[in-house]
Each structure stands twice: as structure tokens, then as C-alpha cells.
Design a protein that fits this description.
Number of strands: 8
CATH architecture: 3-Layer(aba) Sandwich
Number of domains: 1
Strand order of the largest sheet: 1-2-4-3-5-6-7-8
Helix content: 25-40%
Radius of gyration: 17 Å
CATH topology: Rossmann fold
Number of helices: 10
Structural class: alpha/beta
Amino acid sequence: MNSFTILQDIPVRVFDTKTDKTPIVLLHGYLETMEIWDSFFPLLNENFRVILFDLPGHGMSGSYDINTMSRQAAVIKAYLDKERITCIALAGHSMGGYVAQAFTLDYPDTVRSLVLIHSTPFSDSEEKKCMRELEISQIKAGKLQDVIERFMPLVYAPKNRKPFEEFIDEAIGAAMVHEPEGIIASLKGLMERPSYESLLLQLKCPLLFFFGTEDQFITLDRARYLFDAYPKANSIFLENSGHQGFIEEPKVVAEAIISLCS
């Protein structure tokens, strides 16, 4: 069920199946909303209580001046405390993976398993920060729609952009509810995030990586580096995916999550 609630002093949109199964929290990526999971989360319903959020600065949720990863993690923890949930499986896509890692760092005893879907533990490089600054300037100039329309096709493998055109159009439509100030605050939070490399090396719970062999944002070399750097992690390379494997290859992703997190 969809609901709005005040968490950490801002309104937050939440979806919660409210079953008695193991809770799993799915966190969307940059410029996305909880609707990005619509075709995927039903694959998990038999095994999990599924909880989704519009993360701060995105969708219909409120925003801070800077949406740091830890501040967003605190919003999620506030909801779990409200629901008296003490332990979760946690999965984050792209930016959502950064929030998931911040949550794991700040509330380690709450996380029973961590899933990073097309996400890394690295902080922004100087080059990436410059790109985000450019995007901020474009949004301030009233070009958020242009940013969204340019970005959404790129998360799919080139060969999948035509077959998944309906999903791309739906994601663009969902993103039109974003407030420019919220997206800018989220970009600032992305730029400020720390490295989570040592967190993952010391992680006590199971870790699952998903990489797309045609990902335009995480190169195959970078994915292979992470595979080697974290040998204890479960790493799955999706042969027919870009940056959106839970849509491009949903059954493979769902089966792996169920196997690790149930």
C-alpha cells in the first residue's frame, strides 16, 4: 500500500506490502522513483515483505538542502523503527546502492544481507564531480526535463533501448514529478559521499553484486576489479543488461536475490 508519512522532518512516500515475511527494502537510483520497481517487485512477493521509497529529493518525497547518503539512510531507519522492523534485506540500484551502503555503515545490525545492483563503493572522482556540477547548472537553467530525457535511455544496453522503449517512456513520465531543487540536493549529496570500500571489506553480512556487461556507467573493467577486490561477495554478470538489469533480466536478478536473502 502507498502512504505518506513524516520521517526525519520531511514527507516521504512509502510503499509497503505489509506481509509477515522477511522485509526487503528496494532503493531506486538517480532520477528514478519507486515506480521503477513496478515490474520487478512482484517477483519477490512470495518470499518477502517488500518496502519501497521515493528517496529524499525524488518523486513525491520532500528534500533537504543536501541529500547526503547518511541522511537518506536515516529516513529509511525512521520508517523501520516506526514499523518495529529490526532486520532487513537491503537492495539498492545505482544511487540507491550508495544509500544502502550508508545505511549498512550507520546501522550494521539492521542489515541481514546487502545487494548492490549496478552500484559501486567508490566516491565520486573529480571528473565525475565536474559532470554533476554541469548537470546542476543545466537544472538551474530550467533544463531538468532535458536531463531526464537524455539520461533515461542510457541506463539500458544499446540493444535493449528499442525493446524497452515503453519502460523508458514510463520512467521519463514518472520523473516529471521531480522538483528541480530536490534533484540538485541529491546531486550535491552524491558529490559529497565517501568511499565505502573499507565497509565492504569488513562486511559481516552476505553481499551480492550485479553488473551489466553493457553498462554505460560501470565499465566491465571496473566491474571485474570489484569482482577481484571482494572475493567473498557473490557477483553476477548480466550478459544482456546495461545499468538496469532488474528490468532487462528480471528473473535472473530475482532468483539470485531470493537465494541469498530469503
